[in-house]
Amino acid sequence: MRISSEQNAAVEDVRLVEDGLHGFNFDATRIPYAPVPVNVFLRTDSGEIKGGLIGRVLAGWLHIGTLWIDREYRRRGHGAELVRTAEAEARACGCKYVWLDTFEFQARPFYERLGYECFGVLNDHPIGHVHYFMYKRL
Fold first, then answer.
1. Which residues make Cβ contacts (< 8 Å) with residue 102, sequence separation at least 6?
2. Which of 19, 45, 55, 114 is 20 to 30 A from 11 in CA distance terms?
3. What CATH fold (topology level) applies to the domain 34-137?
4. Strands 97-103 and 130-137
5. What share of the chain is helix, strand, coil (3-state, %, to 5)?
6. What pLDDT was estimated at residue 64?
């Protein structure tokens, strides 16, 4: 046996490891790994994307992975509307919770105004900054 570090690993090799963990998790929980994408966009009338929320529903939770609004369109309520739309989709899928992570230079106060609570902190990530983990019960 040997250990190999492979920055450019083959997709099928990465998938084999991920599928192995998903199988282990299924054996422990009986919950299949079947993420449902949640993609909500802010578009101009011509269809150009000016923001969006990218997430996924899995095991009764919505995970918000990315929320971004073009600088020109910030502070107009679009971010809150994207989050509310994603939360509504999560409820429709039977979710009870949402979780996300953000940094101190990003949007913790924004999420707190929407009812999210901090449940974890990773200091000095990235170096010199704070990384927050947040959740909300739907």
1. 108, 111, 131, 132, 134
2. 55
3. Aminopeptidase (3.40.630)
4. antiparallel
5. 30, 35, 35
6. 98
89 contacts: CB under 8 Å, gap ≥ 6: 38, 40, 57, 62
Q: In this predicted model, what pLDDT tens digit does every residue of 67-96 receive, in sequence order?
A: 999 999 999 999 999 999 999 999 999 999
Alpha-carbon Rg for the chain, nearest whole angstrom, is: 18
What are the domain boundaries of the chain?
A: 34-137
Rounded distance, CA 22 to CA 20, Å? 5
Question: Residue range 9-27: average pLDDT?
Answer: 95
Quote the pTM value.
0.89
How far is the C-alpha of 87 from the C-alpha of 109, rounded, in Å?
A: 18
Distance CA(45)–CA(18), nearest Å, equals 40
Q: Express as a percent the part of the chain with pLDDT over 70.
A: 100
